[in-house]
Amino acid sequence: MSKTILVTGATGNLGRAVVEALAAGGFRVKAASRHPEKVAAREGIEPLKLAYEDTGTFDAALARVDGLFLVAPPMDPEAPAKLIPLLAKAKTAGLKHIVFTSALGVDQNEQAPLRVVERALMNSGVRYTILRPNFFMENFSTGFVAPMIKHNAGIFLAAADGKTSFISTRDIADTATVAFAAQHYGKEYNLTGPEALDHTQVARMITQAIGREVAYHALSEEAMLQGARDNGMPEPAVQYMAVLYAVVRAGYMGVVTDVVEKVTGHKPVCFAEFVKDNSACWR
User: Fold this and answer.
1) Is 97 within the bounds of a domain?
2) Each residue's pLDDT tens digit in the chain (283 positions)?
3) Are 32 and 63 in contact (CB under 8 A)?
4) What CATH number is associated with residue 56?
5) 117 within some domain
6) Whose C-alpha in 20, 32, 93, 165 is 20 to 30 A from the C-alpha of 59?
7) Could you give the 3-state DSSP secondary structure of residue 46?
8) In this structure, is the dihedral angle defined by the CA atoms of residues 238, 33, 136 and 151, taken in order, positive or negative?
């Protein structure tokens, strides 16, 4: 009988990729979201409601589950308060394995919200795997940068000329699937794409793919944060964003690892391939 994995954030960029990868890998999936109607049910994939703020949704989600793929709400400094109660419930429910998606570099700051969650998981008594991916390539195709490119022909960020080893959610999902299938207990994986690029290079690749000029505009931090506020981003997330791009400007996100290939057996998607596959998003 195939194992059942509960996937949180199943309607997000990463959650969707993980649901598909696990299903393709022979797992049964409980695809959890605060909006389960957005998940397409099919053989082996069961949509269900789970909201971190509503602990009353935890028990049904964790029932008859072997493992948990846990995604934190994006840019949320309150992640520990939301995720640690779910970890406690998972322990009580007898889950055998939790794979948690954290973020590259958080192990260098014990006060970082995701590091606090990592420590809680390590001390939970449940076998775990921690994934620390870099920024997602999908931020440009279906994430927060996509509207900038499609509607304003630009990338407007306070990244200066800092490089980032962007990674596709497909590679994170494949790594998670192997971690569950091969029981990579107690492992911590820093996940990146195969190269580090600055945003000028990214804009140039997209320009070449769609035949329309896309430019990178290096904003001041103040301008970027005010733009986020103007677009309705809550202030705690704005401040989180400030920290993220300060790290990019400092050059810390340019590290490249070979972990994806070592774990999955295949090379990670390069940005040129990602752009080719997703060019329709920007036309």
Assistant:
1) yes
2) 589 999 999 999 999 999 999 999 999 999 999 999 999 889 999 999 999 999 999 999 999 999 999 999 999 999 999 999 999 999 999 999 999 999 999 999 999 999 999 999 999 999 999 999 999 999 999 999 999 999 999 999 999 999 999 999 999 999 999 999 999 999 999 999 999 999 999 999 999 999 999 999 999 999 999 999 999 999 999 999 999 999 999 999 999 999 999 999 999 999 999 999 999 999 8
3) no
4) 3.40.50.720
5) yes
6) 20
7) strand
8) negative
pTM of the prediction? 0.96
State how far the Cα of 20 lies from the Cα of 148, in Å rounded to an integer. Answer: 28
Give the contacts of 114 (CB within 8 A, at least 6 positions apart): 72, 79, 102, 103, 106
Q: Tokens 């998606």 — which residue? A: 101
Q: Which domain holds residue 46?
A: 4-134+168-190+255-264
3-state secondary structure of 216: strand
**Amino acid identity at 187:** K
Interior angle at CA 44, CA 129 and CA 38, nearest 5:
85
The two three-digit tokens of residue 85, written as one number: 């109660």
Chain mean position to CA 34: 17
HSE at residue 128, side-chain half, CA atoms within 13 A, is 21
Any idea what DSSP says for residue 40?
P
Question: DSSP letters of 24-61?
Answer: HTT-EEEEEES-GGGSPPBTTEEEEE--TT-GGGHHHH
What is the spatial distance between Cα 23 and Cα 163, in angstroms, rounded to a whole number?
34
3-class DSSP assignment, residue 33: strand
Q: Is 62 helix (H, G, I), strand (E, B) or coil?
A: helix
